[in-house]
Amino acid sequence: MAEKLLPDYTIRSGSTLDRALLVKFMQRTYQDMFPRQDFSHLSQTVEQYLSTETPLWWVEYSAEKQEQLDIFPTRPIACLWMGNAIDQISGLRHTHIFLLYVNPQHRRKGIGTALMQQAENSAKERGDTQIALQVFQTNEPAINLYNQLGYQTQSLWMVKPLQ
To answer: Hey, which residues does 101 pair with through a beta bridge?
Structure first.
């Protein structure tokens, strides 16, 4: 069932049947930042972690907007996928954002903010007291969004290539 997200957009729940579409959205996310990289391996991540315990939402044009633009069939333009993590300090389970992706043509319209509110509401409903995510240091628009929403850096993930 779809519900109104923002003017012109609706949100609907996804399911484990959406594996292939989720892989495509994950690949788009990474290809935006690393256009020459092959991300076919992301299907393994989806296979391992997508379940009925990891909520998934899709954002689409609302029916009214589709009629105005004569767009059929409906295609998602944004995605939010959540999972679980264990806080290594407190030992408590919390919500972890696996993926937030908005098609570049639909960015800066409040969709990311609305999806993050959806994530926070869902996390509160299941009793979580914290929500976490990972963002690339070079993804300034995403970092700005998360800062505006009250997220704070808790740790840094550091890597070193071994050659």
So the answer is: 79
Residues β-bridged to residue 83: 96
H/E segment holding residue 122: helix 111-125
The pLDDT tens digits of the residues spanning 33-90 come to: 899 999 999 999 999 999 999 999 999 987 555 555 555 456 899 999 999 999 888 8
Distance, CA of 13 to CA of 97 (rounded, Å)? 15
Reported as a pLDDT band with limits 50, 70 and 90, residue 7 is: confident
Q: Which of 30, 51, 56 is nearest to 135 (CA)?
A: 30
What pTM did the predictor assign?
0.86
CB 59 within 8 A of CB 119: no
Distance CA 16, CA 56 (A): 9
Concatenating the DSSP letter of every residue in 46-68 gives HHHH-STTS-EEEEEE-HHHHHH
